[in-house]
Amino acid sequence: MLNQLSSILLEVLQPGDVIGFTFFTGYMSMFAASVFFFMERSEVDGKWRTSLLISGLITMIAAVHYFYMRGVWLETKTSPTEFRYIDWTLTVPLMCVEFYLLIKPYGGKTSTLWRLVGYSVFMLVTGYIGESIDPARTVLWGAVSTLGYIGIVYEATLGSVKQVADQSPNPEVSKAVRLLRNFVLIGWGIYPIGYMTMPGGLLGNMGLNLDLIYNIGDAVNKIGFGLVVYGAAVASTKRESVKVMTAVNA
Amino acid sequence: MLNQLSSILLEVLQPGDVIGFTFFTGYMSMFAASVFFFMERSEVDGKWRTSLLISGLITMIAAVHYFYMRGVWLETKTSPTEFRYIDWTLTVPLMCVEFYLLIKPYGGKTSTLWRLVGYSVFMLVTGYIGESIDPARTVLWGAVSTLGYIGIVYEATLGSVKQVADQSPNPEVSKAVRLLRNFVLIGWGIYPIGYMTMPGGLLGNMGLNLDLIYNIGDAVNKIGFGLVVYGAAVASTKRESVKVMTAVNA
Amino acid sequence: MLNQLSSILLEVLQPGDVIGFTFFTGYMSMFAASVFFFMERSEVDGKWRTSLLISGLITMIAAVHYFYMRGVWLETKTSPTEFRYIDWTLTVPLMCVEFYLLIKPYGGKTSTLWRLVGYSVFMLVTGYIGESIDPARTVLWGAVSTLGYIGIVYEATLGSVKQVADQSPNPEVSKAVRLLRNFVLIGWGIYPIGYMTMPGGLLGNMGLNLDLIYNIGDAVNKIGFGLVVYGAAVASTKRESVKVMTAVNA
Amino acid sequence: MLNQLSSILLEVLQPGDVIGFTFFTGYMSMFAASVFFFMERSEVDGKWRTSLLISGLITMIAAVHYFYMRGVWLETKTSPTEFRYIDWTLTVPLMCVEFYLLIKPYGGKTSTLWRLVGYSVFMLVTGYIGESIDPARTVLWGAVSTLGYIGIVYEATLGSVKQVADQSPNPEVSKAVRLLRNFVLIGWGIYPIGYMTMPGGLLGNMGLNLDLIYNIGDAVNKIGFGLVVYGAAVASTKRESVKVMTAVNA
Amino acid sequence: MLNQLSSILLEVLQPGDVIGFTFFTGYMSMFAASVFFFMERSEVDGKWRTSLLISGLITMIAAVHYFYMRGVWLETKTSPTEFRYIDWTLTVPLMCVEFYLLIKPYGGKTSTLWRLVGYSVFMLVTGYIGESIDPARTVLWGAVSTLGYIGIVYEATLGSVKQVADQSPNPEVSKAVRLLRNFVLIGWGIYPIGYMTMPGGLLGNMGLNLDLIYNIGDAVNKIGFGLVVYGAAVASTKRESVKVMTAVNA
Known about the structure:
Five copies of one chain form a homopentamer.
Chain A lengths: L1 H9 L7 H23 L5 H31 L4 H23 L6 H24 L4 H20 L2 H8 L3 H17 L2 H7 L13 H40 L1
Helix pairs in contact in A: 2-3, 2-10, 3-4, 3-10, 4-5, 5-6, 6-8, 7-8, 8-10, 9-10
């Protein structure tokens, strides 16, 4: 018993446990990303600081949950879906806030923010029902959940987010919205695939591992999302500073 | 036994445990809100920084207590009322301090602060007696406790808080007081409902869950309270900065 | 046994445990006060920052010890005197440093600092002997310990602290010294009362609880001490800034 | 059993456990180095701050993993290779980012960054296979892994990193690239030696200890890497400041 | 058993355990000192900030090790020499760095730094052998170790540290070197005494307690060392600022 107890307390990763490996790297990379976004925040123009703060909060919240999930995995070799949805309940709406913060200085409306948040909450609640509460109809709920996802993609591709961003005199804004849209379109596309690998899902017999897909998807999407915003902030800050210098010299 | 011990140490959330879900999201969202308020503090005018600091302390204190309550819930599927009152003993007076800090630059008096703190302490002490020490007369104590609640609402709706705020040349102050008053009136109204669902309370047979109501109420009220102050601080800082720029150009 | 073990690990507060309640609020309020003093430090004039830092260190050190004492209390329903004296060994001399920092810019001498620290060490060592090492003669040691206490009161009421403070052109300094003196005179007066409630002490049969008295006394004195310094710093910073603005306009 | 349990919880280092000793000093020195790099960051020119942040993240990530490995070592007197590869998966690409950040202001291309990261990932993946998944062919995988290592050395000695650095008007950049290259060439050379001491490796019968070699190598390489960047940042900041002063005086 | 287990987890200090008392105060005072040095760092001239950072790192590293040693002491009433040497391996060279940072702006050479570090490593390695690996010849190793100690004293009293400091136009530098030298001469003299109280040492039969001597010595030396540097930094910053003001007025 002592040996087992010690393994609980020490949480030793077993050789060849690739999924456990990704829980560890997910936890550490998101934690390091938070420190990065929080510290680089002071190096960009004031108007970009709230965006970088939100980037850091997204990875920080994820890091805390990966820390928990990592421990549960080591002990039980399972990872309850609950923790992922707790994480997403907080981080996905914050990702929608990132879209809004980009277009806010150029006339973006709070109604756009609420619409994005509404889509994301709809997507998460129906997805959660399909995974945890009504798994018998997982395909149906997955399809319903996808409607919320489509809503976010629409806003960023054709809707008001895209329209306001295109009118911004700041070229980084338009580029950042396009890149973030790509993350939603391509990066978030990983989650439905994970969803379909559940027993009863479309890809349920292919033997793909849900946790592995989610772990890689989360790290790429959350850190990538933040890096796009960071890149826009740095480029915009640099351009503004050149403009000021030119004006002073002239 | 080992399995049970490990479940203590790992605190694994069970599928479908919606109340446990809200303990986790309450903890994480309040923690993230504290980081947000503390970091955005440097972006607003000096006179607003103490207000944002208090906003962050309120959510920070709540986050620590939700961390505890979360652990106790996972283990025992109960949540002792004691922890909530320890939290409220510190956070409700700090919310009253927020009202005072808003009106202080425009002639708000410390007597107003002490009156608000007095009402809140009265409300909490009598509420605690009704919930923990004298549950046989829970309805009576609930009614007495409500008097303190009415006192705070009065101050913010008709009393000195409202009066001083209306005289402020800063339009954000008056708006913030009105919004915070609404949180007290509507948001804090959740707590008496929770109170009445106790055995012996007016709604004691309706099967509502006290913890679920409290968890949602706390997160909405504490983060919302802070966001109202943050919104006023950002708007006021922006307006002042435009004024300075105009003066410089003229 | 598992149940007991879990209660250790979770440290669940029992309903009606008022002393445990004050251990929790003491811990949280001192922790929050430290964050407050550390963060507000950047808002006051440079010369006040060391004072605010010391204020924050005092409550931080106390918070750490209350965290320990809280855990010990939950488990054993006792609180070893050792922890309190470890806390006081560090925080009481730091409170004496606060007096010194107030008068230092106006000619306060380091000899005054050493005298204050000497009195406080004398008070603590003899008090500790009376409580832990030679409890048979607790009354005698209590009387001896009081001499150190009188020394600190003397310095702040008639001695060099008072004299230098009165010569300061900064009115906040003199006021702060008077208020801190009152904390020593009235607030610290709680401790001898606690001391006398020990078995063999003068009030040993009155059934007062030593820990309850200490918990309330510590929170009021340490946070109050810091708030007095904070108030002086804010008032002085504001006055100086008005003076500078007037000079610029003239 | 209690005694054993307590040794788990307390993690007492045994006298003469030199490897355990280096796990402790590795953990503490990397943690202290992170605090150093993060705090000194504000003392150098803005363009060097991201480099110092990355230096601090590298040692911070290593500190966290050494904290884990230290605990596992105390309990089991072994150290799973998994933890080292989790660490390296994050820190080695970040070291490549350091090279890129040095040459970026002088025309360094992102293609160079991706090439460096690609080499490092290749080196780590094939190395991991040789150590954990296919230990029967450890020599073969070690040789393959070395190709990635050679790629990094090539870039820094003859390739685009070296070329761009030499064109920089800032002499510190060229010097820093040369020093970092030396760390890769000499410092990283420790790892293959460690690799060859595995059973089945070239030096497998010499009784050298893999963990001792890795612990010393990690501390020297990671802190040294950061100190080279720090030295360049300080020298460059000082030179720029002298230039500005001279211009002002002229 | 539960009671014993709880005492492990709670680490309750026993009444009259004076050595345990000093482990606690050592831990807390060094932690508080680190916060002090890190925060006051922003109040002194840029050139002093690295010195204050090193001061804070020294006490921070010591605080972490005292935290461990405190726990081990509570459980076992012993304190393995290993932890002290792990601490000193990192902090004593950092104290040598403090000497170097003082004289660096006035022509101090890195060769002086390496000599100091070399002496300290020699002193520690031979001291460790005498205490842990070859206790039969503890007197011999103690004598050898003293040679390293004499080397550091020589450098600071007659050697290059002293010579460069005397040539500094900044009077605080020369004073600080003299005070730090006194710490080495008098304060570090505590350690050999502790060493001689070992069984087989010169004072082995006098019943002195090694841990008590080390705990008091560490706190006095490490915090005192930092305070000397802090005092020099504050005095130098003030003098420079007066000089600048005089120049502006003239």
